[in-house]
Structure formats: C-alpha cells, structure tokens
User: What shape does this take?
Amino acid sequence: MHGRDGTRRLRRTMMLGLAIALSAPAGAAAATLHGTLLAKVGYGTTPPSFARTADGVMHVAFETNVSWGDSANGVGEVSISPSGHVGPQVQALAWGGTGGSPNGIPGLAVLPGGTLVATFGGSPGGDDGPWGISSTDGGATWSAPVDVGSGSMEFGDSYVPLVVSNSTPILGAGCCGGIVIQRGFGTGAPTYLLTNNSDNAAAQTGFAVDAATGAAVAGWNSNAGSGGTWLQQVAPSEGSAEKVPVPSQYGTGTPLIVAGRDSGPGVFAAYPGDYGTTTHLRLLRYGGGSVAVGSVKKLHANTWGAATGNGGRIWALWSGVVNGKGVTAITRSNKAVTRFEPIQRYGGTWAQLFTLSGDGRLGPLDLLLGGTPAVKSGPLVSGIYYARVLPELSASVSAKNLGGGKFRLKVKVTDAGDAVSGAKASARGQSKTANSMGTVKLTISGSGGDHVTVTVTDAGYRVLKTRVKL
Assistant: This one.
C-alpha cells in the first residue's frame, strides 16, 4: 500500500507456520498442512468447542471415535498453552457399547470458579439428556457423565452448545421443532423453545456472550421454508430474531460462527456478499447493523467465521479458491470494530473445509480449522487443525531532506487505524520507539533517490517492512 509519500509496503507470501506431516497408514502418502496438527477427530467435519481458563490456556473439545463402530462415541479434549503449545489429546469420555453413547458436537465452557464443563447429547439407558462431564484440574481428568437436563425437554442426539451468561450456564440445541434453550443444570432448570417460527428445522447452533450486558446470543441455520441463518438473544431473556443476509447460493450448510467482544457491547457474525458478484465479507452486529471487512481479488468465500480478539477487537475469517488454489483470508478489527488491518492471505488447499473459528483474547489468533486437507496421493485425513496467527501492523513513512546527506523519516504506526505506541521502527542502523501517537522520527544518511527499507516491530505482531524513496 502507499503512504503519503508514495511508499509501498513490501508484498510477501504469508503461510501458516511450517508444513508438517499428518499421521497416515503405513505406505500411504502423508497429508500436509501449513499449520500445526491439533488432533485428528471423527470425520473432521464439525466445529470444535473451546473455552479459555483464567491461566490463559485454551481448551478444545471435540467428537472422537473410540475403537468401535463408525460414528463418534467419545469426547476428546486438547489444551493449548498461552504460548501456542499444543498438549496431548485427553480422552475425556469413552462411552459406548450397550449403554448408548454420546452424540453430537460437545459444548464447552468455564464455570465461575474455574471448573470446565463439556455437554453433549446421547441416549444411554433411553434417557436423552443432555449430559455433562466436568474437570477441576484444567482438563487433565474428567468426571463420569451426569444427566444435566431439566426433564421438561430432552435434547436427544444433538449438538449441545454451552456458554455462561451472567454466571448462569446456558445450553441449547436444535430439537423438538426448533431451538431448545435451558438455563442452568439439572431437574427443574428453566427450559423453553424459541418463539421464532423460522427455526423449526434448526441445526448448527452456536453461542456468544455480549461482554457489556452478559446476554447470550445464539446463531443457527434453518432449513424451514427457503432456509435462513439467524441470530437471537436467548438469555437472560429472549430477544428478537435477526436474519443474517447470507446469499441463497450458500444454502444452510455452513455453520454460523458467532463471536462476542472481550470488552464492550456487541456479538458479531461474518457473512459473504452475493456469490459471483462480490468478494467482500461483512460483519453483522446483532441488533446493530453491519460493517464492511474487506475483500481479496477473485476470492469468493465458501467458509467463513468470526473470533473474539483482545481490547474489543474481532477477527474475521473466510476461505475459498483463487485460480485453482486454496486461500484463507484473515484480518482483525480495531478496538471499535469499525476498521480492519491489512488482510493476511494463507495458502493450503482443502478437499473440504467446513469451519473457521478460534480465539484471540491473548492478542494472536489461536485458529481452528475443521475439514480435510487435499493430498496428491494417499487417503484424505480429516480432522481439526490449529495454527497461531499474529496481527498485522500498518505504517506510513514520509522523508524530508535536511541537507548535507541527512534525511528525516517520519513513521506513523497503526493497527487498523489505532495508533500503536511502543512499536520500534528502524532504518540504516537507526532505531527508535513510537510515542503515544504511534509516531517515530529517524535521522539517517543517504542520497536523494535512494530507496530505504524501514522495519517496524512490536511484540505480538508480524514484522512489517516498508520501502521509502528519499
């Protein structure tokens, strides 16, 4: 991009970490993915649930298959450290045989006090649940399953998402002709069916919390009538249903990934423009309009999502194919969710990519991708994959000739328009730190017409290099 003096930001190819090999049967070619393998779980076609504990650890729960049959019959958990280290998979639940089995994507949340709880559907002994397991040691060990349903409406074999709203656990599922919401655990917990008549064939329910009010907002797809994708407040009271303007070409197959801010009001969902006529992505704010995110030339989104950032920011994620090659686009908003950083583009072709989600409360985005990477030979390996993405700075640079072979460079460092104090700018051996306005002034030696590279660094951001003509 160009600054006020016509500086051009260096273009570079950005890839998600190091390509690594995934496990494959002996003699088969291993799949590769630009990123880090989180886990191979089930068919890899469903979104994982995740929650971050007070120590900064991100916990991820997902369906697993435990040695029998051809369907998910267990719950797995993986912990990701604040530095991005992926721990070993813990088999939180292996439950099957004659007593029924867990079914559907598990929900996951941290209760007040720090206990981790995973929820899921199933029908052991003929009871449809929902069921829950808990961990008080950060996911190392898990309790036996307990029926946490209220008894008034059973969720059956459904995905049972879980979130905490104003200290109250909120469960939900597509069931009984619509979306069932339960506030709290156990017999007698208030349970009701959402009144939105357009949700009578609902699926893929997800939750997010408005940090300012504590209200829980649900997002889901519906096959009712001509179909639709919806947002609606479900706790502490039921709010109005708002239809997300997802183009009809997409149908209802893509889960609606919703995200709340870590501070300040707002719950957001990403959605694409009309397929075939625009490459733009937008963020819809429940009850409050939408904001343009940006676009990548020729990239029409097939999969999209949103994730919580830090300082009130929201990450926007989308993926598709450009000239026969897979491209995943990622960007982060400013603190007000009104502007966005430069869009980062990552390679990696998928046979199927179903979900993009993650959490960026620590600054970097801990990204989760669910699907099947494409391979040149050998079996396809479905699963959930993890990569850490750093946010992107911007900088404008102007040069002033001071005479005598000296030039003054003025560097303005921003993050989606917000000034970045403390960033370091360097050029030709000179280095200084940005002030509270994000400004750095460097005095360097040179000749008129020279091109100088300015390097901008800050902890937790990608390194930025910008060229300026003296």
The CA atoms of residues 319 and 328 lie 4 Å apart.
